[in-house]
Each structure stands twice: as C-alpha cells, then as structure tokens.
Specification:
Helix content is 54%, strand content 12%. By secondary structure, it is α/β, with parallel strands linked by helices. The protein binds thymidine-5'-phosphate.
C-alpha cells in the first residue's frame, strides 16, 4: 500500500550535465523553504545498493549484458526504495534522488536496446505504487557533455561510444514528452542560469503542493 506523504523529486541527465551541482540547488531550495528532506542517489543509497553500484560501474574483463545491468539497477532500487525512499516519504519527508527508474529506461532501454515493456514489468514489480512527483531532466548534447568530463577518470558507462549517449538522450526526451511530471532544463546554458531554472521549478512545485511554505 502506498502511504506516501512527502514528495519525491528526481534529477536525471547524462554524465557531464552538472547533475550533482543541481541536486545541491534543489536541496538548498528546500532548506530555504524549511522543508525536511532526504538526499540520496541511484544506483545506491543503502550500503548494499552502493556495492551493487560499484558492480554496475566497474571495469570487467568479461562482456556485461544489458539485462545484467538492468537487474543490478533494480536490485539496488528495491533495497533503496524499501530501506530509504519509502520510509522517508511515509515520515513526511521529501526525497531528492539523483537518478531513478527513468535512468533504467534511458540507459538500458534506449541505450542498450532492451525491451521497454520488460523494464515496465520490473518497474511495476519493484515500485508500481511509487513514482516521482517531479523529475528535472537536464538536457545536453552528449558531445558537449563529453568535453565537460574529458579530464576526469571514466567508469565503465562513461567509456561508452558517443552513439550510446545519443540514444540515452533520445530515451530521456521521449520519457519527458510522455510524462507530465518531467521538466526539461536546457543544461547548455551557463551553470548559474541552469541552477536558477532548477530553483524556480522546485519553488513552483512547492507552491502547488505546499502553498503555505515560506
Ligand atoms: P552517476 O553518478 O553519473 O549518476 O552514475 C550512475 C551511472 O549508472 C550512470 O552511468 C547511469 C547508470 N545507471 C544505469 O545505467 N541504470 C540505472 O538504472 C541507473 C539508476 C544508473
């Protein structure tokens, strides 16, 4: 049964779009509005889910099947939903999560070419009654994003071909077009402008759901 009381905000986007900084902005906005929240991320958010994350992103000498990635992501998600997200929401806290199931659709569905209907079965199974209330998607051309992270060490996903990231982006854009909870933010703008837009979107959302917040 879904006994959710707090609101669930997710941030999505490819590597290099400035997601972490913008998660900071969302949290700061909630703090300014005196809204209690839990900040977390996927894959991860619990000790076991963080280990699953390491498995997902590690370099392996064997080929990694897209379906294996999907199962790892959903195994981590189940631990995370039951251990962190659902308890926080039930306690009336808001949850700010760096990535959620939209990432499985974008990376494993569109990026790896897995059947979207099968992903939907896992989604229904793991958290059918629990969906984000607001999803901020930071959109950026993968070529530009790659330049932004060129000087840092790359994990297994970040080492993918550019064509993979174009497919991931198409996936996010398709999901954004199909779900009213999405707000697409142009992440090619200067970071300060992106942060301002993100703050505005969160304030608008709070204004609708907690008109008394100050
Ligand atoms: P991040 O720290 O950039 O968010 O790294 C997480 C990586 O995991 C990123 O490459 C996207 C990937 N990922 C998936 O492939 N599937 C998923 O379901 C999730 C949540 C993340």
């Amino acid at each position: 049964m879904n006994t959710k009381q707090g609101k669930f905000i997710t941030l999505e986007g490819s590597e290099g779009v400035g997601k972490t900084t913008n998660v900071d902005s969302v949290c700061k906005t909630l703090e300014d509005l005196s809204i209690a929240y839990v900040r977390t991320r996927e894959p991860g958010g619990t000790p076991m889910a963080e280990q699953l994350r390491e498995n997902l992103l590690a370099q392996w000498t064997e080929p990694v099947n897209g379906l294996t990635e999907l199962f790892i992501a959903f195994a981590a998600r189940l631990q995370h939903v039951e251990g962190v997200i659902r308890p926080a929401l039930t306690a009336g806290k808001w949850v700010v999560c760096d990535r959620f199931t939209d990432a499985s659709y974008a990376y494993q569905g569109y990026g790896r070419g897995l059947n979207l209907e099968k992903i939907a079965v896992l989604e229904e199974w793991v958290h059918g009654d629990l969906q984000p209330d607001l999803t901020l998607y930071l959109d950026l051309d993968p070529e530009v994003a790659a330049l932004r992270i060129a000087d840092r060490d790359h994990d297994r996903m970040e080492q993918e071909q550019m064509s993979f990231f174009h497919k991931v982006r198409q996936g996010y854009l398709a999901r954004a077009a199909a779900n009213s909870r999405f707000r697409t933010v142009d992440a090619s703008l200067p970071l300060a402008d992106v942060q301002q837009t993100v703050c505005r979107q969160v304030k608008e959302f709070v204004g609708i759901h907690m008109p008394g917040a100050n």
